[in-house]
């Protein structure tokens, strides 16, 4: 899953696919990890600036995620926007993923 997560960082930077953003949200909701470590791993695969990734997350058109299936009951667009903003904040400060539920496993 770590490899998928670091690949998804690169995917969000290189294309505007709702599936990539939804996958990031799903992984973040399901696992505990350090964004600092994931960003380092992603940077080994593709050169990028952290600020660019944050920008891509915060400017992603939320309405595009409505056609992408989620595991379980899908969150509404407002909730997805909250998830993306929290993820962007975690990335910006390079801290632990804050979206993971308490019993979530480590990556």
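Q: What amino acid sequence fits the structure above?
A:
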């Amino acid at each position: 899953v770590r490899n998928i997560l670091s690949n998804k960082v690169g995917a969000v930077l290189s294309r505007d696919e709702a599936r990539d953003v939804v996958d990031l949200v799903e992984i973040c909701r399901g696992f505990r990890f350090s964004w600092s470590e994931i960003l380092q791993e992603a940077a080994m695969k593709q050169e990028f600036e952290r600020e660019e990734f944050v920008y891509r997350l915060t400017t992603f058109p939320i309405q595009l995620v409505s056609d992408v299936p989620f595991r379980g009951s899908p969150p509404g667009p407002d909730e997805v926007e909250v998830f993306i903003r929290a993820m962007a904040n975690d990335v910006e400060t390079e801290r632990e993923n804050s979206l993971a539920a308490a019993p979530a496993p480590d990556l």
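Q: And what stands out in the fold?
A: DSSP finds five helices and no strands in the chain.
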